[in-house]
Amino acid sequence: MNLDIRLPIGMLFTLLGLLLTGYGLTSDASVYQRSLGHNLNLSWGLVVLVFGAVFLFYGRRGTAAVRSADESPEGRATEAREHRTGLESEGPGAGVH
Amino acid sequence: MTTIQLRPIDYVILGLYFAFVLGIGFALRRHTRSSTDFFLSGRSIPAWVAGLAFLSANLGAQEVIGMAASGAKYGIATSHFYWVGAIPAMVFVGVFMMPFYYGSRARSVPEYLKLRFDEKTRGLNAVTFACMTVVSSGISMYAMGLLLGVLLGWDFSFSVLVSACIVLAYIFLGGLTSAIYNEVLQFFLIVAGFVPLVYLGMQDVGGWHGLTTRLAVAATKAGYAPGAYTHSWRHMGAAADNPMGVEWFGLAMGLGFVLSFGYWTTDFLVVQRAMAADSMSAARRTPLIAAFPKMLFPALVILPGMIALALTTRSGATGFTLPAKPDGSLNYDLTIPLMLGHYFPPGLLGLGLTALMASFMSGMAGNVTAFNTVWTYDIYQAYIRKGASDEHYLWMGRMSTVFGIVLSVATAYATTQFNNIMDMLQLVFAFVNAPLFATFLLGMFWRRTTGHGAFTGLLTGTLAAAVHHGLTLPRGSGVGIKGGWLGHVATTYPSEMAQNFWTAIWAWTACFVVTIAVSLVTKPRPEAELRGLVYSLTERARSEGEPWYRRPGVLAVVVLAMTLALNLIFF
């Protein structure tokens, strides 16, 4: 797959983190009576933001490329087994070498 | 009860989530070109993604709402569903069963049954499974519509139709990959939404010490030993000593061995995630990777229930309490939503609701993707139209997604009309599911097992479950949907759960014995046809080339050791 899932997760959590911390900085202290006096929008928002940023960083580096089966010992074994059992014709990628 | 008022910030957060979920579907549309892409993600999902999806597909409404409710009702004993049930089963499917599921190149669990046994066994499994997925997705839609109505005052039809359309859109566009990607996103959202809830609840109840002190009072009041809610094993010696009403043998055999292994090892809803992995080793690691977060989930879904019960019993309560139903008993099902409303300030409340919606949607999507695959490959391609082009089956996959969602919505509405019909259907499915694990166990590990044996065994097991249910009753229930409908009550169990566990044990045993008996008198398939399908005729999957942390065997030992430790800590 060409889309690395870490990118959308990173983006969503970064945006959520920004929204929560932003709201936490500007909101009135009275809304935090419910949460036992903790401004969790600010503190948890920061955690969410950091998590999002880490995922964005690794997602952008991009490592989740599709590898050809003959690059790993296991892939070669699978191919050999499929060749023996005649199952290799399945799937759209078959025959493209 | 007053409904919770949302602020604009909460709506923005919910809206952002919906936008991302749909966006993932659109982004994946271009990559979904063949039926393998649509139904199996082109077998290209990395292990950690498949693992989190494996976990998340099961994290539907029933899991999140139901486990918290059980936490409030039974206390920490609910963790047996994880530490006795799910985890050992996940280890087993990863280490022993995945080589056959993945290695046989079957595209679904029913298809494996066809390869291993015969057409009729596959047909039976495919049809019951397809019905089951549609009904359970309908029931979870119903639960969601009801919940959002009570909580936020949203219209039932609005909640059901909007969430159905969103799930439909992202699966229609991106197929299984879209469902899996969204499940991973939903997993992180569920964690992000629930961690602050547990934190605040623990603060309010006075930490672990405050929790155990208050629950000791609750346990004494209910007539149990003080530790009945906070020790998972100590009071399992006799059924009367614990709120679950189960003794250790029924628990370990019924829940642990039959029900959990049956679900986690044969249910295509979860197995499909591992089958989509990009290699055999990734497929085997999928359930093992899922097991790590799974073993910690009791802290997120069961602990809130225990906290809610503790807070409800504190004297002169002005803070959080569970509401009572009209008959005076506590309404456990509202535990999580009400706690969200009670503790979360605007902003965080939006995140909490998003987590709840995410869990509903991932459960629904899991059912729908399992349905469209089994429908297209095991029913449509097998019995209705063989040998059509791949484009045709891709088209059918998209159509059956629409069809499956429409049926689920219809089921949700039917449930609002006839609550008993739903209970009955769920009961029938429980009868069908209970014996399945015996069929797979024998099929994979005893090469002599025959198709006739498997088929007869499955039917007998289902019948045995029905007969056992018809002859027994949980204490305090009337004859009818709860059992006893065969006109004679042979045993009265201390609780409904004990009855369920024993129904499962009987069904499994009947299936196991009959499958062996019939197999011994029918003709087995030649060994050459069983290569790659049966343990003794399959090359062992080797993992020498892998670093230790990627070897299924090593991971399995670590998982089991940690689970054992958790059982001992909360003994």
List the helices and strands and how they pair.
The complex is a heterodimer of chains A (97) and B (571).
Chain A: H1 6-26, H2 40-61, H3 73-85
Helix pairs in contact in A: 1-2
Chain B: H1 8-29, H2 35-40, H3 47-56, H4 61-74, H5 80-103, H6 109-116, H7 119-152, H8 156-205, H9 207-221, H10 248-266, H11 268-275, H12 280-296, H13 298-301, H14 303-313, H15 335-343, H16 348-384, H17 390-417, H18 419-433, H19 436-445, H20 451-471, E1 472-474, E2 491-493, H21 496-521, H22 552-569
Parallel strand pairs in B: 1-2
Helix pairs in contact in B: 1-8, 1-16, 3-8, 3-11, 3-12, 4-14, 5-10, 5-12, 5-22, 6-7, 7-8, 7-16, 7-17, 7-18, 7-20, 8-9, 8-14, 8-16, 8-17, 9-14, 10-19, 10-21, 11-16, 12-22, 15-16, 16-17, 17-18, 18-20, 19-20, 19-21, 20-21
Structural account:
The complex is a heterodimer of chains A (97) and B (571). Chain A has 97 residues and is mostly helical. Chain A has one domain. Chain A has three helices and no strands. In chain A, α1 packs antiparallel against α2 (40-61). The longest helix of chain A is centred in the middle third of the chain and has 22 residues, at 40-61. Chain A is rod-shaped, with a radius of gyration of 23 Å. The two termini of chain A are 18 Å apart. The model of chain A is unreliable at 89-97 (pLDDT under 50). Chain B has 571 residues and is mainly alpha-helical. Chain B has two domains: 8-417, Sodium/glucose cotransporter (Up-down Bundle), CATH 1.20.1730; 420-539, no CATH class. Chain B has helices at 8-29, 35-40, 47-56, 61-74, 80-103, 109-116, 119-152, 156-205, 207-221, 248-266, 268-275, 280-296, 298-301, 303-313, 335-343, 348-384, 390-417, 419-433, 436-445, 451-471, 496-521, 552-569; strands at 472-474, 491-493. Chain B has a two-stranded parallel ribbon. In chain B, α5 packs parallel to α10 (248-266), α5 (80-103) packs antiparallel against α22 (552-569) and α10 crosses α19 (436-445). Chain B is globular, with a radius of gyration of 23 Å. Chain B starts with 7 loop residues before the first helix and ends with a helix. The mean pLDDT of chain B is 89. At the A-B interface, α1, α2 and α3 of A face α1 and α8 of B.
